[in-house]
Amino acid sequence: MEFPTIEAYVGNTPLVRLQRLPGNTTNTLLVKLEGNNPAGSVKDRPALSMINRALARGDIKPGDTLVEATSGNTGIALAMAAAIKGIRMTLIMPDNATDERKAAMTAYGAELILVTKEQGMEGARDLALEMQAQGKGIVLDQFANLDNPEAHFEGTGPEIWEQTHGKITHFVSSMGTTGTIMGTSRFLKQKSKDIQIIGLQPEDGASIPGIRRWPKEYLPSIFDETRVDSIINMGQQEAENTMRALAEQEGIFCGVSSGGAVAGALRLSQEVENAVIVAIICDRGDRYLSSGVFN
């Protein structure tokens, strides 16, 4: 009898209905629980996709070292995928990331390099490319790697379509690398051009882990603005309040970017009727406890 390995359990995450937060409405609000992936976030999908496809092409082989810039979830997912495949992993991250994120990466055996909060993700990305140029590792580059959105085109999109029996009308997703929204949008729009794709970015001055307003020169090259119908600017307070309400009123324990996505879905629900709105819950809340956001 053949038993599956852990990578067989990346994807096929639950889609559940919100019971209290939507209030009295004709709309159905659904959330996809990506924290149920083995390494705890939606990034398990692209991490495994990028490594598996690079191995299949011969771009990398077991024993090689990968170098990647991350704000947290992708790094943890890549560390897991690298551990599964026997690959060494060096991760570069801003030092203001939570202790839980740092500890999770090193638990999987990854080496961690920290840049300052001021250098941010842009500095981390620059350093990864420098290290690659110095022969210290291979950069998969989640921001430019088409194997990132492909994971969502093949997984997240079809799952949502099937789980809603093709009734989805709106899809809401926070945008970081933009892989989730790009791949899912491409699949859903092939099924029905009427499905509205809504991206979420932080308001100016808001600091929401995992989502960004990129300066033009750092905008992920996998991003295609024609695949997004509208963008919601989300405030930090609204995202954090919704995140806490999800835990207290729905029993859904998640991070701030997920709170932002649901806050966006709730805003949208005020404007439409008889809609089936799906939002992505990117990860689990235990990744943020030391930051004090749940206090």
UniProtKB/TrEMBL annotation:
It catalyses: O-acetyl-L-serine + hydrogen sulfide = L-cysteine + acetate. It comes from the Bacteria. Pathway: Amino-acid biosynthesis; L-cysteine biosynthesis; L-cysteine from L-serine: step 2/2. Keywords: Amino-acid biosynthesis, Cysteine biosynthesis, Pyridoxal phosphate, Transferase. Residues 7-283 form the Tryptophan synthase beta chain-like PALP domain. Its EC number is 2.5.1.47. Its cofactor is pyridoxal 5'-phosphate. SUPFAM superfamilies: Tryptophan synthase beta subunit-like PLP-dependent enzymes (SSF53686). It holds the Pfam family PALP. It is an enzyme of class 2 (transferase). Belongs to the cysteine synthase/cystathionine beta-synthase family. This is Cysteine synthase. The gene is cysM.
